[in-house]
Amino acid sequence: MCEVAGGLEHAYGVAENALGADRAGDTERARQLASDASGLADEAKARLDAVDGDATVASDPYQALVMGYLHVGQAAKALLPEWANTHGMTAEELDLARTQLGAAEAALDGC
Q1: Number of other CB atoms surrounding residue 47 within 10 Å
Q2: Staple partner for 89: which of 28, 29, 59, 78, CB 3.0–4.6 Å?
Q3: In b/e form, how buried is each residue of 76-97, taking b as 16+ CB within 10 angstroms?
């Protein structure tokens, strides 16, 4: 799960950069970065889905990573044209993602 956490951290950073580009008025760059962040989050989720075992899936780190994935994905997608009605949610979703990723990292003992 440490690999998944790292992947989601990377996706989070790219989404954060997308938000920065959006705030700076660079819509094209923001959309590209948002698309990249969404794809990175999906890749991490695919690795998370491959984790076996009921005990693992029910664990706090696993659940925090799932929630982190959802929030990073929503943050990124909010900057894409097809999700324009959610555009203002990016910063809030990133805050929620940070909380979940922090919880996962603490439960995974900082890996």
Answers
A1: 15
A2: 78
A3: bbbbbeebeeeeebbeebbebb
Q: What is the pLDDT of residues 49-70, one digit of tens each?
A: 998 888 788 899 999 999 999 9
pTM higher than 0.85, yes or no? yes
The full length of the chain comes to: 111
Q: What is the pLDDT of residues 13-22, one digit of tens each?
A: 999 999 999 9
Please choose, from the candidates 87, 89, 13, 16, the residue with its C-alpha nearest in 3D space to the C-alpha of residue 44: 13
Q: How far is CA 42 from CA 55, 82, 85, 88, in A?
A: 23, 17, 21, 22
Orientation angle between helical segments 60-77 and 90-107, nearest 10 degrees: 160
